[in-house]
Amino acid sequence: QVQLVESGGGLVQPGGSLRLSCVASGFTLDYYAIAWFRQAPGKEREAVSCISTGDLDTYYEDSVKGRFTISGDNAKNTVYLQMNSLKTEDTAVYSCTASYGRPCTVVLRPDYYGMDYWGKGTLVTVSS
Fold first, then answer.
1. Nearest to 38 by CA among 57, 55, 63
2. Residue 29 β-bridge partners
3. Which terminus of the chain has a lower count of CB atoms within 10 Å, N or C?
4. Residues 61/71, Cβ–Cβ less than 8 Å
5. Contact partners, residue 109, CB within 8 Å, separation at least 6
6. How far apart are CA 40 and CA 106, in angstroms?
7. pLDDT score recorded for residue 102
């Protein structure tokens, strides 16, 4: 079965850390752009970060630069999102997507919906 499955979400206090995982099954992540998006209740989808598995270029939205790190492990067919110094405004459902042969600069556009695969998401709640 072809799918992306996210995990690692949960409840964390402000200033804490979480590591999200995005595991691909049924296909390999080679030459895909893997992006993380988030959506908070009542808000629109927001791009977070992206990694190109071909050349390992990474991209971050300004709101998470310096706090989040995206990385990939092709052997495990997994992309990670390490989130540090979490803030209450980071609370959202985080989903990963896979786009074959697309650069991250395209995938992260707010009007781009041409992803090949979407995960169902994992909830991150930052609260004291």
1. 63
2. none
3. N
4. no
5. none
6. 22
7. 92
- In percent, the amount of the chain with pLDDT more than 70 equals 100
Q: Is the dihedral of CA 67, 86, 105, 94 positive or negative?
A: positive
Decide: 13 and 128 in contact? Cβ < 8 Å: yes
Contact 50, 107 (CB under 8 A): yes
Chain mean position to CA 74: 16
Q: How far is CA 40 from CA 36, 105, 127, in A?
A: 13, 23, 14
Does residue 104 surpass a pLDDT of 90? yes
Which residue type, as a one-letter code, is found at position 106?
Answer: V
24-51 tens-digit pLDDT:
999 998 889 999 999 999 999 999 999 9
Give CA separation, 18 vs 41, 91, 117, in Å.
20, 12, 23
